[in-house]
Amino acid sequence: MTFNPKNEILAEIEPAVALKFSPQLECIELNRGDVLQETGTEVLWVWFPDDALICMASESIEGESVSGGMVGRNGAFGAFEACGSRLSYARALVQIGGAAWRIRASRYRELFDHSANLRVAIHKHVEALLIEARQLVACTAIHRVESRLCRVLLDASARSHQGSHLTLTQEELANILGVQRSTIAVTSSALQRSGLIRSRRGGVDILDFDRLEAAACSCRRTIAYAHQEIDRAPDDVCEG
Question: Could you say which of 51, 72, 75, 195 has the lowest number of CB atoms within 10 Å?
Answer without folding.
Answer: 195
